[in-house]
Design a protein that fits this description.
The protein has 169 residues and is mainly alpha-helical. 51% of the residues lie in helices and 10% in strands.
Length: 169
């Protein structure tokens, strides 16, 4: 938590950080006062509302499937930090297949994510050489998601087919 906190602060980007109450004690005490001008730490937020806001530049996520789909369908580039189960696979898709994000990598010597890695990855997604490509790809996936759920789109058609199949039972 301390490495993430220091990386967020060092990135010089404004941030909203959702931290569960059970994890709050792991946040450096001085971060709350240091972050006042550009950071907000909360226990909960309406994630879809936040990701829908035009001021959001990127989303740092552990890459659970719901969060991945929400960010992808809302056109938000991602900083991925997978931990377990489906998260590494989702991160692989985000980074290598959909090309809408970059992964924070653990230091081999310390076997953990460092503040420098967090800072550098956030800066690259927000302002680096790949930032424009990531943003454009994210917006492309947003448009594809809209098409899929629109009338006549693939998702719309599949739902109709499913409902029709239930009616015949």
């Amino acid at each position: 938590m301390q490495e993430i906190a220091c990386g967020l602060m060092s990135s010089n980007c404004n941030f909203l950080w959702v931290v569960r109450p059970s994890e709050e004690s792991k946040i450096p005490r001085d971060l709350m006062s240091e972050a006042q001008d550009r950071g907000l730490i909360v226990n909960w937020c309406p994630q879809i509302k936040v990701l829908s806001h035009r001021a959001v530049g990127c989303f740092m996520s552990h890459c659970g499937w719901n969060s991945t789909i929400e960010a992808l369908s809302l056109g938000v580039p991602m900083v991925t930090m997978p931990v377990w189960v489906d998260q590494p696979t989702n991160s692989k898709y985000i980074v290598d297949v959909w090309r809408v994000g970059l992964r924070v990598k653990a230091s081999e010597e310390r076997e953990m994510v460092t503040r420098e890695e967090v800072e550098g990855t956030i800066r690259e997604v927000m302002h680096g050489e790949k930032a424009s490509e990531l943003r454009n790809n994210a917006l492309r996936w947003k448009e594809l998601a809209k098409e899929a759920i629109s009338e006549g789109g693939s998702s719309d058609k599949h739902i109709e087919e499913f409902v029709s199949s239930l009616e015949s039972i």
